[in-house]
Amino acid sequence: MNTLALPSAITTFPQNKHCIRRVISPRAALVEAKPRPVPATRGGGSGGDNVPVTVLRVREDSSSFSLSSRDRADDMQAEARAMARAVNASVYTPEYLAVKYGSRPIKVLQRALEIFSGLGSFAFKLWLDQLNGQLDQNQRLRAVELRQIFTRLGPTFVKLGQGLSTRPDLCPPAYLEELSELQDALPTFPDAEAFTCIERELGRPLDSIYSSISASPIAAASLGQVYKAQLKYSGQVVAVKVQRPGIEEAIGLDFYLVRGLGFFINKYVDIITSDVLALIDEFARRVYEELNYVQEGQNARRFKKLYADKEDVLVPDIFWDYTSGKVLTMEWVEGVKLNQQDAIERQGLKVLDLVNTGIQCSLRQLLEYGYFHADPHPGNLLATPDGKLAFLDFGMMSETPEQARSAIIGHVVHMVNRDYEAMARDYYALDFLSPDVDVTPIVPALRNFFDDALNSTVSELNFKTIVDGLGAVLYQYPFNVPAYYALILRSLTVLEGLALYADPNFKVLAASYPYFAKRLLTDPNPYLRDALIELLFKDGRFRWNRLENLLVQGKKDKDFSAKDALQPVLKLLLGKDGEELRVLVIKEAVRVTEAVILGSVVESYNSMNELMRTLIFNGNATGPFAMSTAEQESMLELRAQVIRIWGLLRSSENFDPSILQPILQVLQEPQARNLGGRVVGGITQRLAARLLQQVLRVPPSVSAPTS
């Protein structure tokens, strides 16, 4: 079985707290396809003999250990105590950093020289490239060099590089791709310091908390490192994350210097249109939030509450009694990194199933509740042995504003329908552009790129291609991409990248579109309701093929409800502001009713022998109601399309004929009765005209319906 490997070095705590035995052997990798069988040990008799025991499996049935079984009041009190332990957690304050490091010029100068020697040499090479006209030619080489420089400069710059990798408005595509490869793995700090930190932060000896703990970390990153332990009070296996000593001092000094650079860029560098100082401050606030592990625990709890209701998503629980500002104790999750395809498949699982779970969960995060995991790289996504997708590391979270959630869905719809004017206007709602910016020059750029990209069907669109193309547009025009949108692009690009390992033909937009279709059909949000009407009606005609496609796609989403699909437009149709829509609906209702009635007549006519046709239709060679062959075919196609759509609604998993009840109820309202009268009147006039043409055998003057 492929699991998150138990570290080979185990620290055990016998009953005599002054006697600590360590079993030292080479450290295991963070994830192994077939981990070596390693005995775990726990406290035994007074002699401290090591007794091999089976390592506890978590989540087979975690009900006996899960915090959800605890009394809620006790849990809230434990969380309050954890918050009290983190009361002195650092908060990013530019003014405080200015005061603190403004009085330490030697320290600032030393670090400035270190940074300048790295970034200065890089800037000099860029200048030479510009002089020699080789900026484009050497772009990939310089991107690699910048990634290496950030790695050498340490945690702050690793985080900064990761942040820049999500900013298409700041970096050309080659830099985005190279910086996205930054790994924040750093050398570990001494275990003795980590154990001392745990005891100091939690206010109790290590052996009173754990019956065993790994003697070495199983993972180390820029801000901290993780140990595997077993709680003494319950036997629960947990992950213990300990903050790197001195990290606040290191990143504080770096952000003080980087902020000074941002001020310089804002004032003297014209080619960068974004407010660099604001971006640095926003990024620094997020990094400082990551330093508060109680905040991370609260993020995990909120994420679990919102998204772990789905059976295929797992979010580890938090143990507040063993958590502080610098120590985080959470439920241990066995699993394999999502980019280790062979190991996953040896467990009988499919990477694409897990990626699809990730995409659907991400769409809910981004567009339903707006609270999302902002750092979903492969190390933070695990495939568990029972086929669930586990999310880890909740230090960096973000939120999508409510207005933007609807605008993103509308933007995708406008893109698919090549409505570039509407796409450009969406950037106001997305907060990409200030209202005084004219979007007219942007429309041709969107058309030039997307006309080419959209020659493929939606199911063939590659998300990375779309992001790269959009990034090129953003880079050329005065866009200010909000942090949440850049993180959304990064999130979905990472998931598509993981899927491409398993299937080179996988397209994240194809997997996402059923969700967009479902939301468009069922969401009462006015913005989405208007987007739906805009999609379905064009030049005064209803596009039944678009409705059919939306229903086909929406049904692929397991949460799609046919009942909900009728409500938003119906409410607008009968509302006080729905007159324009009512005119279109009346016209279409007449047209569809005529197609259903006369289409049935045409079918009957075609099935008759010559004698019956002569007797009933008076020998009319052009068929019933003197319709041409083209007109008959058009009417039959419309009728067939309407029948198919009704079939799609009926075949919905939760279809109930009672969905028609709201229509019957609203028909009692005066406005609805007026609408019904107008429809009946229109149908009567059309059928009367057809009948008169048949009696007089006058060639039809009524235009043929089209689908």
From TrEMBL:
Q: Does the keyword Transferase apply?
A: yes
Q: Which GO terms describe its molecular function?
A: kinase activity
Q: Where is the Protein kinase domain?
A: 212-542
Which InterPro entries would you find in this protein's record? ABC1_dom (IPR004147), Kinase-like_dom_sf (IPR011009), Prot_kinase_dom (IPR000719), UbiB_kinase (IPR050154)
Signal peptide (from-to): none
Q: Which UniProt keywords apply?
A: Kinase, Transferase
- The superkingdom of the source organism is Eukaryota
- Which family is this protein grouped under? Belongs to the protein kinase superfamily. ADCK protein kinase family.
Q: What is this protein called?
A: AarF domain-containing protein kinase
Annotated organism of origin: Forsythia ovata
